[in-house]
Amino acid sequence: MDTKKLDLNLLVTLEALLAEQNVTRAAERLHLSQPAVSTQLSRLRTLFDDPLLIPTQRGMSPTAKALELLEPLRLALDQVRATLAEHRHFDAPTASLTVAIACTDYLQAAVVQPLAVALRKRAPGVRIALRHLDPSLLQAQMSSGQVDLALMTPEQGPGSLRSRHLFDERYVLIGRQRHPGLRNRLSVEQFAQLDHVIVSLHGGDFTTPVDDGLATLGYRRNVVLSAASFLAVPEIVAHSNLVALVPERLVRDRRKTLRVVECPFPVPGFGVSMLWHERNHGHSGQRWVREVVMELATTL
């Protein structure tokens, strides 16, 4: 059989013909004209090199090959129908899906962690594959299907991707609960005198834009530790007299072990969006996951 010439509509017609064993009734079932069904039957006979249905006094009788085809044909078409139905309607409690998400370590803690907990309750068959976020590779990764969803500041993302704003983040100052120098209303001078941890995503830097802002006010802070990730910072601070400026959502559940206060001078925050490729835009499962992410971001 030449599968290049295979038309799925022909198989649907064959299913109806084998069920009805009558061209007129099969045409009514398919909402087609009788000549159209007769033409398709002729093509089916050529395709399978078999008469398939033989005229009798009471209609048509299936051949041995037709009877042999009936069950696998029904199973195959039912599977196609189920696949199409799944893409139209995503049944979260029973569906199976893997979603590849690219994001920073901070957003793994702030968004992906509560997402994973929510999915275990709402959609236990949905799995998350975490990917390292590299904005320069994101377009290619999404085009090839390596990444389904990215969580990031929108300015870093390719403009060709679809996006949706999730939330605006701000920075807070954290220290251990009984830190001797941390108080609710710090002066800029008191802030500068504390021992600081900063995060250097490139590794090894001991200054950030915060230090530029301090310099314009005539101060310089004492940075004693440069970390490569935000995730380790709360734990470091909780067991020392160090302090750190961190995104607020990172420490939303740490207020029993950490003291959280306002920075004494304005520190610009940042926006967080989710980005996805056009190839996933209409997929019902991917769309459902995006809605859950949006819901969690708004709630948290």
From TrEMBL:
PROSITE patterns from the UniProt entry: HTH_LYSR (PS50931)
Q: Which UniProt keywords apply?
A: DNA-binding, Transcription, Transcription regulation
> Which terms does the record give in the GO molecular function aspect?
DNA binding; DNA-binding transcription factor activity
Q: Where is the signal peptide?
A: none
Residue ranges of every copy of the HTH lysR-type domain listed in the record: 6-63
Question: Which Gene3D superfamilies does the record match to this protein?
Answer: Periplasmic binding protein-like II, Winged helix-like DNA-binding domain superfamily/Winged helix DNA-binding domain
- Does this UniProt record's set of keywords contain Phosphoprotein? no
Q: Which domain of life is it from?
A: Bacteria
Keyword presence, tRNA-binding = no
The UniProt family comment states: Belongs to the LysR transcriptional regulatory family.
Name by which UniProt lists this protein: Transcriptional regulator, LysR-family
The taxonomy runs:
Bacteria, Pseudomonadati, Pseudomonadota, Betaproteobacteria, Burkholderiales
